Amino acid sequence: MPKTSPRISGFTWIKMKSFLLLLALFLLLFPAAPDRVESDTVVCRKNKNICSTLLCPLFYSSNGTCYDGKQKCCARWNLKNMMQWFRKEDQQ
Predict the structure, then answer these.
(1) Maximum distance among all alpha carbons in the chain?
(2) CB 58 within 8 Å of CB 86
(3) Which residue ranges form the domains of the chain, and what is each CATH number?
(4) Do the Cβ atoms of 76 and 57 come closer than 8 Å?
(5) Which is deepest, 33, 37, 44, 48, by most CB within 10 Å?
(6) What is the pLDDT of residue 86?
(7) The model's pTM
């Protein structure tokens, strides 16, 4: 004799459908998203740097990106940066 699957009563079927509908609605209203991350442009501007399209201006060095990697984030040179650059040149 073949096994038959147990029948689900009408009330249980309605509860299951309503649960799935509520779950789908909940996932649509509150999608699982990572914490908000600041864009590279915002980080560049907060550090008082500028965004440049091709090359950084004179006395600026590239230290990141802007506009999702389409531009360079340029920081103004200071004495500390210049000394590090000269030390790198001497080591090579």
Answers:
(1) 90
(2) no
(3) 40-91 (3.10.360.10)
(4) no
(5) 44
(6) 72
(7) 0.48
